[in-house]
Write a structure and sequence with these properties.
Four copies of one chain form a homotetramer. Chain A is mainly α and 194 residues long. The first copy, chain A, has helices spanning 3-20, 32-37, 40-65, 72-87, 89-98, 104-129, 141-164, 169-190. In chain A, 49% of the residues are buried. Chains in contact: A-B, A-D, B-C, C-D.
Chain lengths: 194, 194, 194, 194
């Protein structure tokens, strides 16, 4: 399979999963104006999830530019990764429904999904990069090593934020938002050679 | 990233968001015939939103033809823009549910979303066009300037229509529909060189 | 705009609208086995709608192969056409919910949507074909004329089936199914040069 | 029609159907933590369905690489196949809702859908492969014969698992999961030349 078709399929799942998130946004009870204002946890959950999928989409491209060929194991790791990405509307809905009540279970489930996503994403990369198994011959080893180095802190950040949500749902959600913003800013400042 | 993949992804979000709008259309209570007829606010909200996304899709292409390359800041402004586009089924549902009651809050939230969409779209363009930062070398400066000039009245029209919905929900919705029709007619008459 | 991007966008709406139809399929009340069996109107509505969109998708390609260029009026007629295609999950749900009760209003609304779809599709074609306005210079006039001739009976068939649903919902639905099967069989037998 | 457009459309339906599955996942009643844990039948049904569609997607590509041209009959068999693929979120929801109660009807309906999917997929292939009707001239006959041989056991496995669900819902679901895992492992070990 050419990587192009794999990228198109992955992009499709990213776009659909991100766009389906809106089906989980609901007005709160009460008057229309009141219900719209008090739906803020839905908006926050929507924005964090959409942005996170957007960041993955942007980075997915950088990663795939280094890949020269794919094998079936790689394809199925990618299917598992997409399974977690496509799962994200569910914890987003749970977070939106339970954030006002401060449910730590809801915030933990949300973080767990994104930690799992980071782990699958890392697994996808390291399977391809180990011994340059699927890396394109003309890919620059410094870029390959740079991508490898960037995966560990990403997973660790999500894991820590997830654990912190057991202390406080709001702390966890604030950290999820901070991680997303960190990636947007860091990537905009230092990653201009798209 | 080639602009082609960015366009494909954006087109995907446009298509999905527009097609998801139908999930927000529901029959009104009563007999089947009565419920179908009295669901007219759902149909109106569906048509205005679908048409508006369709106009954005048509114009998005004209805009992207001027873009020669992208950087990460541009990618993330585009993600923010798509986040607002993908959000539109929610205010569409709110508008459909509340229009018969004349809820100004529902009409205002609807307009606010489209004003925000216009603002993000403008931000996307002016980031690329400022000093021809991302403009293709062979793009005609008159077309670039023409696109720049067209953004201001667009955002102003949406802003004014949104404010007018605070006076009357029906006035606001009539203006949203008028803006969409204006773009279709103006674009068909004067913008034939697609 | 190249017709390729227009086709991709249209294909996306076809695929999404057809796939969303399943969200309108629900079990009937009672035990699981009973509820699955008695959901047959949902299955019938799903199958007819999916097949109809599938037929449109297959034919859309034949039509677009004759098109050499597009203008903005054509783009907006296509947006209107896609608006009706994307609308189809709603009457499909209404039909599924009301067919067991024999609701003629539900069957009529369903047929009306597909008649409107045929009308928009015809409008799209005749706008392009009139005086060969947008027809590719190397398109065979016999094929162009053949497509033009095929539109009239199609719209008439849908219109008559829709009117017949006012006599009996079941008659109408039987005719909608018959039209879809007619197209599949006719097209398979006589239209092999895809 | 070029096979490329057919593949893109099919990939779109695969991606949308797989991503829509998440809309069928719901928390169980009770506290947030309890409801998340006891939703395990939803997670299991989601994972099996997503993985199965993922396997079909991977294999669909291998199959289509052998296809040199398409005719309308082939297109409509593909539409029927996609109709079954797009149907899968419905039995997935039924399975998730009824698995904890051990409903054999729910597990049977689930298996029936996947058996039908395998049958349509086989029909698609054998229509193309019979007398090499649509097979590309440069396709290796050993690969073509190998694909033909692989269809029969696949359909038989799904059929047997479906029948076994009439004895026990859990047995059936365990077999559906085992089939999916079998394909992933077998394909990763022996099918590396993607």
């Amino acid at each position: 399979m050419e990587t192009a078709r794999l990228e198109t399929f992955s992009d499709g799942v990213f776009a659909i999963a991100a766009t389906l998130l809106i089906l989980e946004v609901h007005r709160a009870h009460g008057s229309v104006a009141h219900g719209l204002v008090h739906a803020w946890p839905s908006y926050a959950a929507y924005a964090i999830s959409f942005l996170t999928i957007g960041i993955i989409w942007v980075n997915h491209h950088t990663v795939f530019r280094q890949i020269g060929r794919v094998d079936r194991t790689f394809l199925f790791i990618n299917v598992a990764f997409l399974m977690v990405v496509a799962f994200s509307p569910f914890p987003t809905r749970v977070l939106a429904e339970t954030l006002r009540g401060g449910s730590r279970a809801g915030a933990f489930a949300y973080g767990l999904t994104f930690t799992l996503m980071a782990a699958c994403y890392g697994g996808l990369w390291f399977y391809a990069a180990a011994g340059r198994r699927l890396i394109s011959p003309d890919a620059d080893q410094r870029i390959v090593s740079g991508i490898s180095r960037s995966f560990l802190p990403g997973s660790a950040m999500y894991g820590l934020a997830t654990l912190s949500s057991l202390l406080s749902a709001y702390l966890g959600v604030a950290l999820y938002a901070a991680i997303a913003l960190f990636y947007v800013i860091e990537s905009s400042l230092f990653g201009r050679s798209v």
